[in-house]
Amino acid sequence: MKELNNLSKKTLIVIFILAITILLTSCTGGRELNTLGIVVATGLDLEDGKVIITNEVINPAKGSNSENSTTQENTLFIQGIGDTLTEAFVNTTLTFDRELYLPHSHIVIFGEELAKRGIGDYIDFLSRNNEQREQSFMLVALGAKAYDVMGINSGISQSPGRYIYEIVRGDIYNDETRSFTLTEFFKYFYRPHEGFLTGVLKAVEKPQINKEISENEMTVICVKDAAAFKGDKLIGYYTGEEMIGFNFIVGELKNAIIEFESPDYLVDKDRINSRAGKLSSVQVFRSKTSQNLKLIDGKLHLFIDVKFRGILRETTQGLDISQPGVLKEMENSCAKVAKSYMEQALEKGMKEFESDTFGIGQLVHRQYPDLWKEIEDNWEGIFVNLDYTVNVTARINDTGFTNTPPNIRKGKQL
Amino acid sequence: MNSEKITSRQLILLITTFGLSVTISYMFALNLPPSNQDVWIMILLSFVYSLIFRIPLLFLNNKFPELTLVEMLEKILGKFAGKFFGLFYALYFMAYTIFILILQTQMTGINILASTPNWLIIGLTTIACLYIGSKDLVMMCWTGELVTSISLFSIVLLILLGLKNVNFTLLLPILSDSTFAEINKGAIMFSFLTTDVFVLIKASPFLENKKNVYKIFVYSSLFFTIICAIAVAVTQGALGLEQARHTIYPFLIYTRIINFTAAFERIDVVFVTTWIAINTGRVAFFMYFGYMALKDVFNIDKSKVLFIVIGILIGIISIYIANNMTIVVAQSMINLALMLSTAIFVTIIPLIAMIVYFFRRRSLDTEKLSEN
């Protein structure tokens, strides 16, 4: 009897497992790949008070290996319009035969008009939607609609969206811009009494080099500069040089080229072959910023100390760096330029934007918490008149393979 | 090792991980006073309050190690009052099971099974819990050890992998924006949000070394507090103080932004599956506790039918609530209800029982001696 019971128990378990295997082959409501429109980039614009969403969707029929397919054909651009972002997003299904799928969307672009009118009402969708990647980059189309800068692919990526993504991600190679992911964007967006930045995209016309193509010009995407926001509204742009200064100030400079002129007295005029060049380039590969605030006569004074190391990448000026003191003077000249970038950025932030995009308010909060409680509501007014001192120390650690540039004759032996 | 007994390590692992499952899911600590960069300090302080508020329950458990919770209450407060409170304990355990079951359904639905109906998620979880709960407590603890150790490792690993995104300066200035009263208030409230001391109370009769009850609780509370404080601090550092508070599941977002080389990207699913594993265990335990309490109140012998009925009832109520209400768990009302219920069942009722015990100590001790 006991054995019979055990047998029936085992049979029941086997039936149960088989039933589960048949019934639960996948999640209910699961969406098959061929029913999805995989979005790689999203653009948001405002027109006549309506939101226009433009989605770049992968075209599965034109795979990378398809013959005769160009990179432009690899994707489709699907637009939807509505009073809200959700309505615009869902309305894309009225004209497109796939449901849009966002987890592969790496780029979110705001048209300039929308950004100027305020993005606050249009970002809830991005944080609430579980499909949207938190690692997507947030960008503003400089002087254009979002859809104007979409669909351009002048790189070797398979799609325009991927092309933008790879350029934006490349900010680690060039600090004349700055990319912010969705999470970073919200981190700064929520900071009280402070502004924030996003990266920018602009379409730039360039001469067509490839003679096999009939057009004389080609359009490329450039991500130089950054957009500054106050509240939720776009108030202007930091230029590339100001962005180097900005990245120095906030201590997040990764890689930048600083071009500078060295004093004329360093040039050994007797041995010079060419006088056309004036500049030297140093690639900054490591920097350290310390920000400090002091109360001087009851007024806040900001001290920014930056120390950086760089590699001498080029000099066109005819400088013999093997001579004593030359390198030191070059370091000083380089530091002066870096300092001017920082001052330009600070001046623009204070006087033009009147918005603390540098997080100085947070510094006051950290250093003078009691004072911060008194002044935080009036921080913008205080920030625009903040006194500051910038100190920069540059070190050129590496001069490459050349000790004397080609445009100077080497002097006699020591 | 005696496989019919529960080891201290098993219980430490279970209590630590069970506590973490509820505290890092929707991180209610972020909305408790001082709700700023000092939240991690408040959590660390809650360790002290957690010990203080659980003294009555642990003391009574130590005095009557062989009795169940309801039997203990009957012994001290008398048959009627004991059964009265016992019934409330049973309802509390069942209500708590419903809460964590709905929480699990929401989190699963929001992240990995967006289109799966609630009845299916709750139904499958209930069936799994009924199966787990049908084994006795010792077996549950042995299985739990395996699941919780993997889960705990996963949580710690996810914390480490996300450190790249953490800006620790966001946690400054320390103790400048919070008052002593705020931090203490938050610590007291936080200490009432974990209920897993019941695992220890229920499992203590089966402990390998019964003298270790206090030690187990201190160690598990300490580990839980430290890991929870770290998880909260890194989440705030990665998302920013405000964004973390705006998010329903902050730690889930923390795991979603992990980008530690291409190999460790989009590994939030690890967190969700880990969390589901822990929470399913937790649901099974509390379902079992509800059954045990109800069984003792109505003097029913071990009954699988009763356990299944309780499980089905919990499942149906959970499906009904999940289908008809959206529980935003960060909402203060839900937290308030949780804290009040924990205060009542973990501290106030045991405190009343402890006071009565001190008054009736002689008669109870004599009774115990005569029984022996």
From TrEMBL, chain A:
It is a lipid-anchor. Residues 31-197 form the Spore germination protein N-terminal domain. It is found in: Membrane. One of its GO terms (cellular component) is membrane. Keywords: Germination, Lipoprotein, Membrane, Palmitate, Signal. InterPro entries: GerAC_N, Spore_GerAC-like, Spore_GerAC-like_C, Spore_GerAC_C_sf. Residues 225-400 form the Spore germination GerAC-like C-terminal domain. GO terms for biological process: spore germination. The keyword Signal applies. Its main location: membrane. Pfam families: Spore_GerAC, Spore_GerAC_N. Belongs to the GerABKC lipoprotein family. This is Ger(X)C family spore germination protein. It comes from Paratissierella segnis.
Automatic annotation (TrEMBL), chain B:
Keywords: Germination, Membrane, Transmembrane, Transmembrane helix, Transport. It comes from the Bacteria. One of its GO terms (biological process) is spore germination. The keyword Transmembrane applies. It is a multi-pass membrane protein. GO terms for cellular component: membrane. It is found in: Membrane. NCBIfam families: 2A0309. This is Endospore germination permease. It comes from Paratissierella segnis.
